[in-house]
Amino acid sequence: MSDGIVRIDDAVQRADEDDMPALALTDSANLFGLVKFYGAARAAGVKPIIGADCWIENEADRDKPARLLLLCASRLGYRTLCELLSRAWLENQHRARARIARAWLEQSTEGLLALSGFLDGELAAPLLSDHGESAERIARGWSELFPGRYYIEIQRAGQANGEALLARSVALASRLRLPVVATHPVQFLEARDFKAHEARVCIAEGYLLGDQRRPRRFTPEQYFKSQEEMARLFADAPQALENSVEIARRCNLDIELGRTRLPAFPTPPGVTLDEHLAREARAHA
Fold first, then answer.
1. Cα within 13 Å of Cα(71), Cβ side
2. Whole-angstrom Cα distance, residue 38 to residue 46?
3. pLDDT in tens, 103-151
4. pTM over cut 0.70
5. Dihedral angle, C-alpha 230, 231, 234, 238, nearest 10 °
6. Which residues are CB-contacts of 23 (< 8 A; sequence separation ≥ 6)?
7. CB 154: neighbour CB atoms within 10 A?
8. Does an H or E element contain 175, and which?
9. Cβ neighbours, 10 Å, residue 3
10. Contact, 18 vs 240, CB < 8 A?
11. Which residue has the higher pLDDT, 255 or 72?
């Protein structure tokens, strides 16, 4: 919604055309696209993976939160993610961005898988500044919060420092015996859509397209890559691609659509819900 121009139906169609067994939708700190995506993916025979790009509060510097990708492995995980995001928006906004406090995750992470966040994650700064011990401490901490459910995320989308971080992330995962997973951030459908995407970002952030000082957070590589393209891109790290399939197998969220779910509202004895609503409406008219 804020930094992408891919329509849900188009993304699902592209996945179906490429015979992808699964596709993930991870909105930024929300689940707004869940219902439409879940229905479209199931209808196309593509397994929908539901999650969110979450921002974890940095207690030392509130202006520098860390990205953590959370995926729902089960109904319980979905409910936990809903509670975390709702609480973040209600209790912990900073500069119009909802932050999840680490202490909340210490209460329960059951049913959730976590990916480290690559360049925006907490591991990036210590790894790129050669603070290996700090990175190991951070990674161990997250793996303890998500036992058997924490993955070191790597990407190749043309980002600055991307290759350096990838190499150091893989080395860290090897030292700690943690799984590595290859992901790809999709912001537009075709490579030729990059300029249109940049225009969309400028509109959202209040910049002019020709402004040389505006932040450039995206690259022309962030289009919807095929399985073949991803296989070539990570030919030197096949296990990272295999783990993406393993994650898809582990995520089994079943949602019933088309049914309204509202809490039972108490009414006085012998008074129906419709009658009570009518009385209250007249009383406060």
1. 24
2. 9
3. 999 999 999 999 999 999 999 999 999 999 999 999 999 999 999 999 9
4. yes
5. 130
6. 11, 12, 15, 41, 46, 47, 48, 49
7. 24
8. helix 162-176
9. 16
10. no
11. 72
